[in-house]
Design a protein that fits this description.
alpha/beta; single chain
C-alpha cells in the first residue's frame, strides 16, 4: 500500500487523467473469444483525441481484453479500486456502443461517482429515453452522436468552468431539468481526425486491429442503427491506418469495421492497390476481414484487387433466406441470386462468413405464416447450398432508435425491460413476441438448434483427418499453391466449426446459471394473449 501511495504522490501535479472504459459483456458472451483479441475503435479514437488536449492524458481500459491478472478482484472483474489507487482519474468515459453492456456501464458509473470522478457516456445506445436513464444512473454527461469533437469541447469547457449549453451533441442535468443541446453535425472531413493510437490501451493484447475507411451507411435496413449519408476519408488516411499499426505494433491482422466495404469503388480500388505494393515492399502479408454487400460479387476488378491486398475473409449480411423477411428488412435480394453471388466470392478464393437473423418480425401488411420448424429447414438448406464457411445466427434485437424497434413498440410486442433487462440484448435471447405460429420459446430453441447443427464436436476429427491427409493433397496436385489453398481452407473451416462448438458449450454452461427462462416465461405471459389464456 505504501508503494501505491508513492505512485499517487508522483502523479500529483501531472496532467489530468481521462480513463476510457469499455464495459465487459454480461457473463460469457458468444463474442468473448474474439473480444479478448481486439478492441472497439470508437473508444480508442476518443482517447486519442483527449490525449491531444493540453493538460490531459488518456488511457483505455477494455474489460473484455484485459490481461493483468493481479488487477482483478475476487469476482474476476477488473479491480477499478486498484486502478484508482494507482492512477486516480479526473474524468471517466464509458462506452455505450453495445446495449448488452449497459448494466455494467451503470455499475461502473456508480463506482466512479462514489469516488468523486466525473462520468461521461456515449455510444449508439444513448438515444431518446435512454439519455434520461443514463443521467439517472450516475452518468454526468451524455455525448449524442459522434463524440470526438464533443468530448474535446466538453473537457476544455470543464477546465475553464464555462457554460456547457453551447456545446452541441450533449445532454446533462441542470437541477431537476435535463438539458439536451442541439444535434451536432456528423464529421465531414474524416482526415481531420488523428490516426487511432492503440498505445492508449492498457493491459491488453491486440491481435486483430480495427480500421475504418468510411462512416455512415445508405442501405436503410429496418433493424440497423447505422444510418446517414456515407462520408469518406482519403485513401491516404485509410492507408496510414494499416501502415501505422504494422510499423508501430507489428500488427498484420485487420478488421475493416465499415458496414459495407467498397461503398466508394474508387477509394476501395486505390486502397487495395496501395496495400498490395506496401506488403510487397515490406515482405509481409496482411490478413484482412471486410464486411461487404453481396452484389459486389459482380465487380470482378474489385474482387481481384481485394484478394491481392490481403482481404481473405468477407463477412456478408445475408440476414435471411426467406423472401418475406428480406422484404420486411428493406433488403432487395432474393435467395437464388444470393447463392449465385456467394459462389462467385468462393470462386475468387474468399472465405465467407454469413450473418443471419432468425425469426425476423414481418410487417403487418404482409401475408406470411411460417412456423419455427419450417424456418429451420429453410435456413439449414440455404446454408448448405451456399456452402458458407462460418455462420453467425442471431435473433432480432430491438435496439434503441431503429425502425424495427419503433414498429414492435407500437404493436406492444417488446418484452418488459423490467423482466428482460439490457444485458440480454446481444442477439442470443428472444426479446419480443414473434409472429404466429412461433412462440418466444420456439424461436429461442430454433436459434440454438441452428447454431449447434453447424458447429459440432465431430469437426475435431475432421480437422485431424485434414492434417493426416496433408502430404497426399499437397503433393498429388501439380498446382501446389492451389492445393495448399484448398487444404488450408478446409482445415480452417473444420477448426472454426470445432471452436464454435466449444464456444456454444461454454455459453450453454454459463446460461444454466442464469434464470432467464423464468424471466422469459413471466415476460411472455405479461404480453402474449396466447399464454395469458393458459
Amino acid at each position: 500500500m505504501d508503494d501505491l501511495n508513492n505512485i499517487v504522490e508522483l502523479n500529483s501535479g501531472r496532467k489530468k487523467i481521462f480513463r476510457m472504459i469499455v464495459p465487459c459483456y454480461p457473463a460469457f458472451n458468444i463474442y468473448s473469444t474474439v473480444a479478448c483479441q481486439t478492441t472497439a475503435l470508437g473508444p480508442i479514437m476518443i482517447a486519442t483525441i483527449v490525449n491531444m488536449i493540453p493538460g490531459w492524458e488518456a488511457e483505455v481500459i477494455d474489460e473484455n481484453n484485459y490481461y493483468w491478472r493481479d488487477g482483478l478482484n475476487d469476482a474476476g472483474k477488473i479491480d477499478h479500486d486498484l486502478l484508482e489507487q494507482m492512477r486516480p482519474a479526473n474524468v471517466v468515459g464509458l462506452y455505450g456502443g453495445l446495449t448488452s453492456t449497459i448494466p455494467r456501464l451503470y455499475e461502473l458509473a456508480a463506482f466512479y461517482k462514489e469516488h468523486g470522478v466525473t462520468t461521461v457516456s456515449g455510444g449508439q445506445h444513448f438515444i431518446e429515453e435512454n439519455i434520461a436513464e443514463a443521467l439517472d444512473n450516475n452518468v454526468d454527461y451524455v455525448t449524442i452522436g459522434e463524440g470526438e469533437e464533443t468530448i474535446r469541447e466538453l473537457l476544455v469547457a470543464l477546465d475553464a468552468c464555462e457554460k456547457l449549453d453551447k456545446i452541441n451533441g450533449l445532454a446533462f442535468r441542470d437541477g431537476e431539468h435535463i438539458v439536451e443541446t442541439p444535434q451536432r453535425e456528423p464529421i465531414k472531413d474524416l482526415d481531420s481526425l488523428p490516426l487511432p493510437d492503440f498505445s492508449m490501451l492498457r493491459h491488453a493484447k491486440i491481435k486483430l486491429f480495427p480500421v475504418s475507411l468510411t462512416r455512415g451507411c445508405g442501405m436503410n435496413c429496418e433493424f440497423c442503427t447505422v444510418k446517414g449519408k456515407v462520408r469518406l476519408g482519403t485513401v491516404d488516411y485509410a492507408f496510414q491506418q494499416f501502415t501505422s499499426v504494422y510499423e508501430r505494433f507489428n500488427g498484420d491482422y485487420f478488421f475493416i469495421v465499415d458496414d459495407l466495404f467498397g461503398q466508394d469503388r474508387e477509394l476501395a480500388l486505390e486502397l487495395c492497390h496501395r496495400l498490395k505494393k506496401y506488403q510487397e515492399m515490406m515482405s509481409v502479408r496482411f490478413w484482412i476481414t471486410a464486411q461487404i454487400r453481396l452484389d459486389k460479387a459482380k465487380d470482378t476488378e474489385l474482387l481481384k484487387a481485394m484478394r491481392s491486398a490481403g482481404i481473405n475473409l468477407v463477412a456478408i449480411g445475408y440476414e435471411s433466406p426467406i423472401p418475406a423477411e428480406l422484404k420486411s428488412m428493406n433488403k432487395k435480394l432474393n435467395p437464388e441470386e444470393i447463392i449465385k453471388l456467394t459462389n462467385i466470392f468462393h470462386s475468387m478464393g474468399f472465405l465467407v462468413h454469413g450473418m443471419f437473423i432468425f425469426g425476423y418480425p414481418i410487417k403487418p401488411n404482409q401475408e406470411f405464416t411460417l412456423g419455427a420448424k419450417e424456418r429451420i429447414k429453410i435456413f439449414s438448406r440455404f446454408i448448405r447450398k451456399a456452402k458458407i464457411d462460418t455462420i453467425q445466427i442471431l435473433l432480432p434485437v430491438p435496439l434503441p432508435g431503429t425502425q424495427m424497434t419503433r414498429r414492435l413498440k407500437d404493436e406492444n410486442r417488446i418484452l418488459s425491460k423490467d423482466l428482460i433487462g439490457w444485458e440480454y440484448y446481444d442477439g442470443s435471447f428472444p426479446l419480443f413476441i414473434p409472429d404466429e405460429p412461433m412462440t418466444v420459446h420456439s424461436m429461442y430453441m430454433s436459434f440454438k438448434h441452428l447454431m449447434s447443427g453447424f458447429y459440432r464436436f465431430r469437426y475435431l476429427f475432421a480437422m485431424i483427418l485434414n492434417i493426416i491427409c496433408f502430404p497426399v493433397i499437397i503433393f498429388s496436385i501439380f498446382n501446389l499453391r492451389r492445393g495448399w489453398t484448398s487444404w488450408h481452407m478446409a482445415w480452417r473451416n473444420n477448426m472454426w466449426r470445432f471452436v464454435g462448438w466449444c464456444i456454444l458449450k461454454k455459453w450453454s454452461a454459463s446460461f444454466e446459471n442464469d434464470d432467464f427462462l423464468a424471466k422469459l416465461h413471466s415476460a411472455e405471459k405479461e404480453l402474449d394473449p396466447r399464454n395469458s389464456q393458459q
